[in-house]
Amino acid sequence: MKAGQMTILEALWLGGAIARMVLLTQSTAYMLDGPAGSIMPAACEAAVVPLLLVLSHGSLRRSPVTVVLVTLAVWQFSCRNYLNIASEFTANVLFTAAHSFEFLASFAYLFRTLLIDNGSKGHHVSVGFTHLLMPIQQGLAAYFWLQAFDPDADVNGGGLGIAVIQIGCVVQLGVYLATAALYTAEWFGDQQQPWEGSHPITADI
Questions:
Q1: Is 88 or 4 the better-scoring residue by pLDDT?
Q2: Which of 19, 128, 145, 195 is placed for a possible disulfide with 98 were both Cys, Cβ 3.0 to 4.6 Å?
Q3: What is the domain partition of the chain in residue ranges?
Q4: Which residues contact 171 (CB under 8 A, 6 or more apart)?
């Protein structure tokens, strides 16, 4: 796989990471609680931004107009559909924007597997592990947003509110499961290829 073929996916992930980073400077309402919460997730978000910036610089350089248009569309959508967890309007919008970028990235991930990975030879352990990890990670996110709030909880700020996050998480889970199934089917197909065209062994008695 060429490095330039991956930049669209990383550019979308970069958009989500930047939105989360700016969000943390606006409000702490969306920070995780518990042993895995507090400053650790924020530090991970900060650490991944430079890496994604390096990986996605190709898309940013080749298609700046597309990047700007996608960013504006995500921002406009987020301004119309946001939660009411933080007291700051910008923080609520940024949270929806981060999820919107990640929603688009999940489809880019599927298309990359369908159109690019299928044309490459060989299967790396790291790629297979990623296809296994992504549905698990997204499944945890979907479970949280479906169970975290009571049905009568007042967390809707505007538009569809929490429904955008819930539907987006479930759709992403389906996309990552489909991608994993596609990769697994291709892997099994490649394992059977050496046996295709083989002839039965015969011996004279």
A1: 88
A2: 19
A3: 3-190
A4: 103, 106
